[in-house]
Amino acid sequence: MSSNKSYLEVQEEKESNARSYPRRFPFVIEKAAGMMIHDVDGKEFYDCLSGAGTLALGHNHPVVIEAIEEVLKKQTPLHTLDLATPLKIEFMEEIFSILPKELRNKAKIQFCGPTGADGIEAAIKLVKNATKGKSILAFQGGYHGSTQATMSMSGNLGKKQHLQSLLPDVHFLPFPYEFRCPFGIGGEKTAEISARYIENLLDDCESGIASPCGMIFETVQGEGGAIPANIEWLKEMRRITEERGIPLIIDEVQTGIGRTGEMFSFEHAGIIPDVIVCSKAIGGSLPMSVVIYKEELDQWNAGAHIGTFRGNQLGMATGLATLKYIKENKVLENVKARSRQFFKRLHALKETYDVIGDVRGRGLMIGIEIVNPAARKDALGHYPAYEEMAKTIQERCFSNGLIVEVGGRHSAVMRFLPPLIMTEEQTEAVLAIFEQSIAEAVQ
Ligand code: PMP
């Protein structure tokens, strides 16, 4: 057995029907380095999925591999529950060093289970405990994980319609999605109206939302379709929650650790959240999640949030190596430069191809919404989402050697999440394949 075909037959026969990525990327990975993946048939791919945004430094970066080797050499225990090791302390200090200075000496960190969802669950427990509030303010189109509680707070209903036991008391508020404005307005006004609507709803607590324990959102919705929240809106959410004493939880699982061009995405708005949830890139390729929060929220009892896998030393070593590398190698500057390069070319492509309805994002979290120019325009003057075309473009990209994910409410947004260290030449190569693939798809 050695070909994609023969391995995939086994996968299809044995693995759950819930498997997702293999349906879109039917290959078997033999090895990977940087942003390149090689399959068992010897074909090479540019990886713009990066483990769903996890691989800040791409695959198997030398500093990551070295960090793992070091742990093994030093006989650091691989598993420690939440007991201390010198490595854990160093990792913690490194995380604190990247926090905005307003938080640096006033924050606490909670190590959680290995997934982003674990971190979100812990954050909700933390604020529920501290505020004694019950209801959660979440957003349409948001995504926070696949456990029962995190799904309850995730906005795109499709996937969970069949589940009966989701958390009650979740209120979905309108996210400032300018292209598909929920109020039929569009553009920057979307954010203004969303903020006013939310403020009124909270003012009218009797009929609106009583005793919220927290508000949670991503500053750029990832799975929701690379939708960046307007900066003024972010500031408004901070003001509105602050005035009402509602803890603001920012889900930095996908946006965090440099992805948007700042270490934390909320820094673009100059705001300080009460709670930050990190996962994905903070583990430097390995499973890790942490919640960082203002110390006044630290009101839970010893053992209030436990979990066996909170001491993954390999993940701490790779996370530490990744944070240091980002700091020492001007990676954030590269994110900004590559982002400009992407947007320049993608905006030009939008002029050429009428299936490109919207180009958006922040840093290296980029979305291209594919639309159907043969259909009727909506009230905002935009064509409807075109899922089949997005799928065809994705298939063309894949056969041309480019891995790019599709997401969004209607599965019509091409989502680029490349490694933060991709080079100018790699960016050109990726964009050339993308353009060729669109040209082939619309033929
Ligand atoms: N929050 C956000 C913003 C995410 O993008 C994801 C994963 N895509 C999660 C939470 C959940 O993370 P995990 O899949 O590791 O549970």
Automatic annotation (TrEMBL):
<comment type="similarity">
    <text>Belongs to the class-III pyridoxal-phosphate-dependent aminotransferase family.</text>
</comment>
<dbReference type="InterPro" id="IPR004637">
    <property type="entry name" value="Dat"/>
</dbReference>
<dbReference type="GO" id="GO:0030170">
    <property type="term" value="F:pyridoxal phosphate binding"/>
</dbReference>
<dbReference type="InterPro" id="IPR049704">
    <property type="entry name" value="Aminotrans_3_PPA_site"/>
</dbReference>
<dbReference type="Pfam" id="PF00202">
    <property type="entry name" value="Aminotran_3"/>
</dbReference>
<dbReference type="GO" id="GO:0045303">
    <property type="term" value="F:diaminobutyrate-2-oxoglutarate transaminase activity"/>
</dbReference>
<protein>
    <recommendedName>
        <fullName>Diaminobutyrate--2-oxoglutarate transaminase</fullName>
        <ecNumber>2.6.1.76</ecNumber>
    </recommendedName>
</protein>
<dbReference type="InterPro" id="IPR015424">
    <property type="entry name" value="PyrdxlP-dep_Trfase"/>
</dbReference>
<dbReference type="InterPro" id="IPR015421">
    <property type="entry name" value="PyrdxlP-dep_Trfase_major"/>
</dbReference>
<dbReference type="InterPro" id="IPR015422">
    <property type="entry name" value="PyrdxlP-dep_Trfase_small"/>
</dbReference>
<dbReference type="InterPro" id="IPR005814">
    <property type="entry name" value="Aminotrans_3"/>
</dbReference>
<dbReference type="GO" id="GO:0019491">
    <property type="term" value="P:ectoine biosynthetic process"/>
</dbReference>
<comment type="pathway">
    <text>Amine and polyamine biosynthesis; ectoine biosynthesis; L-ectoine from L-aspartate 4-semialdehyde: step 1/3.</text>
</comment>
<keyword id="KW-0808">Transferase</keyword>
<keyword id="KW-0032">Aminotransferase</keyword>
<keyword id="KW-0663">Pyridoxal phosphate</keyword>
